[in-house]
Amino acid sequence: MKPLNQPERHTRLWQFSLLYLLALLVPLGASYYLFSNSSIADENARLKRELDQTHQEQALLTTRLDTLTQHLQRIDGIDLRMMAESNPNVRSVLLLKNQDYNNAIAARLSELRNDTAQMQVPAHRLVARNVLRDFDLYRSTRNSIDVLRQEVTKSGEGARGSERLVSELASAKQEASSAKQQVVTLQAALAAASARGGGGGGGGGGTQVVAPPSSNAKLLIELLRDQVAFAEADCQRQRALDHKPRSKERRQLLESSRTAFIQILQDPATDDLKQSIEQTLAPINVELGREPRFFGLLR
Fold first, then answer.
1. Is 42 a member of any domain?
2. Would you say residue 209 has pLDDT above 50?
3. How many domains does the chain divide into?
4. What is the pLDDT of residues 66-76, one digit of tens each?
């Protein structure tokens, strides 16, 4: 038995089938269009390349920064050792090591600059430039610290040299005072001997002759006088060394010392004293720009 509305049912069925097919074709066509388009694949490949490039640049930056950090740690350790070290030989070795690490940092920074020019990620270029700027500031500050440290070392050496010169000056003054006392004693002894000789001659009716001072005594007196003059001239030379190079006071003292040395050289008591004075005058003539002429008129 057939239903009464069979034609309507067939019509509705065909309408539903067509609507279903149309609804199904829309997502299928869209999916086909999306997945068959090569631009999406190209975009995925580009993103993958960028990701790989990012990983490579990050690894390179990490390596460079780790190397720089290790050098900084070594420099800090050497600085701490230098603060506690008083041996100048050890300090010089530590300074050489510090210089080597600073040179290594400069080489790594040069490599990082070359790498920065080839980086593709803007964030990595920015990080590298910030690191380069910071290390440039560090290097300039480090150079200032090294210069100040050298100045402090020179000041310490100058202070020790001044103390040594003061002690040498005091000893020279003592030697000069002792020599002066010996000269006075010998002169008094010679005067007493002459007086005794003169008095004895008067008592004998003038028949006795006064014995002149011996040649050894005269030579000893001349030697002591030259030693006193040498000690005074050397004191002036050591006082000049306490002043700054090329200063007016230093030059005046050296001129005075040179004049005193040359006066002794006009008639030195011994050849050893002459040689010693010539050796002492050599650096004075060099500093004053004078020719090494010791005899005759002063230049």
1. no
2. no
3. 2
4. 988 898 888 88
